[in-house]
Here is the input.
Amino acid sequence: MQTNPQFSKFEAIASWVVPIAALIAVAAWFIIAPEGALGKLDAIGYAVCHRIDARSFQIGDRQLPLCARCTGEFYAAGLALVFQAFVSGRRTQLPSRGILAVLFLFFVAFGIDGTNSYLYLYKQTNPGMFESIPNLYIPNSTLRLFTGSGMGIALAAVLYPVVNQTLWRVTDDRPAIEWKQLGILVAGIVVINLLILTDSPFVLYPIAYISALGTLSLLVLVFGLLWTIIMKQDNTFEHPRQLWLAFASGLTLALLLVLSIDLVRLQFTGTWGGFPGLSG
Here is the structure.
């Protein structure tokens, strides 16, 4: 396979520039984010989540980096990606139609509960608005957690084979997840959700880390794939160690996006917490 000299030169330059940019982005994240380990995770959640206190799980009087729905979505997505990495290897095919139907039901449940929940919120914070539209039920964090984690499983189940399709030279032409693996994954997530609902700090502390880092990991994967495609390196990798530049680029771009959203939101709201005036 012939290599474009222009891209080879660009890659050589990038191999020096990208690590430096990644270190600068990480340093900026540490400087700008609130103090403490959980504060750094808050800065990740702040970029993707409303962080309304009343809709978040609490460790004592401190809310987790993400609301209940986003906690479920991103911790489940992160664990599902790791699970597939162990059991599916380099499989590239999307799940069967039956499994896709189940994943679509997870998506529908997420959409219905999210719409109902936001409708309830706006009716509470803006009396008189949408009063003619009835709520299906009173939303609660248990449903938010379960529908969010279902969505996280669906995201990971679709994203994982796409990653493999993009990266590897030699692949396994089988579905990335099958019924047995899906059953094990769903059962494991259900058990973890039940543990989260105990409100034990021994459960919530690791979930805080897993959910926030799961959020960042998804962004890194997407930007890493984008870098790979732009560099015309798709389907060229043979070993994970060859991915360092793509994912260093993904980390840099992900942190820049997170920091940009953080700074804009902080400028408008003046708080690292939920949007002012929204509660319940």
In short: The mean pLDDT is 90. The chain has one domain: 5-268. Residues 78 and 214 are 4 Å apart (CA to CA). Residues 5-268 form one domain.
